[in-house]
Write a structure and sequence with these properties.
The protein has 231 residues and is an alpha+beta fold. The chain has helices at 31-42, 69-79, 103-117, 140-147; strands at residues 3-4, 12-13, 19-22, 46-51, 56-62, 84-89, 93-99, 160-172, 176-183, 186-192, 203-215, 218-230. The chain folds into two domains: 3-117, Diaminopimelate Epimerase, Chain A, domain 1 (Roll); 135-230, OB fold (Dihydrolipoamide Acetyltransferase, E2P) (Beta Barrel), CATH 2.40.50.460. The chain contains four helices and twelve strands; from the N terminus they run βββαββαββααβββββ. The strands form three sheets. It has a five-stranded mixed beta sheet. Helix 2 crosses helix 3. It starts with a strand and ends with a strand.
Length: 231
């Protein structure tokens, strides 16, 4: 088992069904962003806590598909009637307030509820793609055509997957990975935002969307990488 520590009140195993995080230095204005980013990285329902009124902690939570976060809090509240001072939200996001000394109790209660409501399959991140994009569609006209469509939660924008050779890479603003990729005889500019690894491998299998990058008045096709792994 691998442990990870994220400024929280305990060391969290990757086998946990939920994440409860707290750091005295966190500000209430950033815990929603923090919970969302950690949820995306670790694929677990996540609550990030910051100090509120004296003696109280306020949390912002983000959920994964398959777990209605507000309903999970409602079940916690029913089993522990005096634990949550306030809570509310919806399926994907929720918030709550509790006494600071009861954080560990909430952590255990949430973990139990999540283990009951979320299956092991739902805790396994899956990424569905449309497969490789035919070479003729790596063009400005094709990307503009895709951008004119109306995409939404029930009709997501196309996500493609393919294998590339990494020709070059560099980190922008200490967190974004900028790459030059090659597929066959063609090369592509690509970027992955909020890249968390030290570097990309020489050959990658990538899930990506296509976008238009404009620089000095010139437009080019750019790949927006959502996931990469060694090929």
């Amino acid at each position: 088992m691998q442990d990870i520590t994220l400024g929280c009140h305990r060391s969290l195993p990757v086998t946990a069904a939920s994440l409860t995080l707290f750091d005295p230095g966190w500000h209430q204005g950033v815990i929603g962003i923090l919970a969302g980013r950690i949820k995306e990285k670790l694929h677990r329902p996540t609550f990030a806590f910051a100090r509120g009124n004296p003696g109280e902690l306020k949390a912002s939570g983000r959920s994964i598909p398959g777990l209605h976060l507000r309903d999970a809090l409602d079940l916690v509240a029913k089993r522990h009637p005096d634990l949550l001072l306030r809570f509310g939200g919806h399926a994907a996001a929720a918030g709550l307030t509790l006494r600071e000394e009861r954080l560990a109790e909430f952590d255990a209660a949430l973990e139990q509820v999540c283990r009951e409501l979320v299956s092991p399959a739902q805790l396994t991140r899956t990424l569905e793609t449309d497969g490789p994009l035919e070479s003729g569609y790596f063009s400005l006209d094709a990307v503009r055509m895709m951008q004119q469509e109306v995409w939404g939660q029930a009709f997501p924008a196309p996500l493609f997957a393919d294998r590339f050779e990494v020709l070059s890479q560099r980190i922008l603003k200490e967190k974004h990975l900028k790459l030059k990729l090659r597929k066959g005889e063609r090369s592509f500019d690509a970027i992955q935002f909020n890249f968390t690894e030290a570097a990309a491998p020489d050959r990658i299998h990538a899930a990506f969307r296509v976008d238009i990058n404009e620089w000095n008045g010139r437009q080019t096709v750019q790949l927006l990488l959502e996931h990469i792994e060694a090929d």
